[in-house]
Amino acid sequence: MEIPILDFSLYESPESRTLLADQVVHTLETVGFLYLKNHGVPAEQIDKADGAAVKYFDQETSVKKQFSRPSVMTENPGSGYCEIGIERLYQSGVKEVKETFDFIPSDLPEGKAESATVLIEPLTNLFNSCAELARKLFHCIALGLKLANERYLEDKHKGMGNRNVNSTTLRVLHYPPFDSAQYGETATRLGEHTDWCSMAILFQRDVGGLEVETAGNKFVPAPPIPGTVLVNIGDILQFWTCGRLRATTHRVRAVDSEQNTKVRRSIGFFANPDFDAVVESLDPRYYFHPEPTGEYTLNRFRNAYHYQERQDFGFMKPQRVSE
Ligand SMILES: O=C(O)CCC(=O)C(=O)O
Ligand SMILES: [Fe+2]
């Protein structure tokens, strides 16, 4: 299985957009991941956000913790820092050697955000460009799925950027040099997981390590390709389409000793529907009880931050509609 590189300049005209929409949906049905070139997010914005992340993560942990991501038992956590070893996407026993800062433009609590000052302008600009790209991708997906309302998915994500109505975040990730003697034999960079958003857009800097699961439970590398972004489907679009679009499992490993000595940096934009947006089956052959995604998302956070391990996060069990 190869992750294809699609040309997003096809979006610009309505004729070629239809072709692109079919390519996007076909790839998300089969692979679940795709690279995009000519994606329209300015390289300068990506470089500035990355440069700011270098400066931000270089600060003492105690300084970064002044603006920690809040505990998440009862509400969406919003912006903030998460230190090494706290968030665990795979299994509670497996330490993930990464630190992160999540950013929602409207969520910068007064008096706390000072340690993140360097990030605010570059991440605001990049957030806005990613939101625009996400809206165009949602448009393509709706066209490719042949939905009656081609703006259906965009309409469900109207509140991106407003923490009171939507949990979409732009996340900078910093993976320090990886030393299993220090972190333990089972530690990894980022455990196997699916994203629990609707769609993710990922910018990788020069050090690789991301791997994507293929049909036979085999993982293949998804290396950084200059000038491209990587796009993948999260659980919520998989639910929405009753499994037609795939939320593909992925992970980040420090695969070789040379890579282990290097810092890996990446930036992910995780698009989520508005809190009050009802998700219902988009496939007439299946039915599930329509509901917003809030409780599902909170269950995933509870699992990742408080290690309440469970197999079933309580959402969307499509049943075949009898003919
Ligand atoms: O660093 C990466 O490339 C992957 C990040 C990721 O998969 C995530 O944060 O969900
Ligand atoms: Fe992910």
Automatic annotation (TrEMBL):
Keywords: Iron, Metal-binding, Oxidoreductase
PROSITE patterns named among the record's database cross-references: FE2OG_OXY (PS51471)
SUPFAM superfamilies: Clavaminate synthase-like (SSF51197)
Domain of life: Eukaryota
Residue ranges of domain Fe2OG dioxygenase in the record: 166-273
Family classification: Belongs to the iron/ascorbate-dependent oxidoreductase family.
Name under which the protein is recorded: Fe2OG dioxygenase domain-containing protein
Source organism per UniProt: Ramazzottius varieornatus (Water bear)
The gene coding this protein: RvY_10814-1
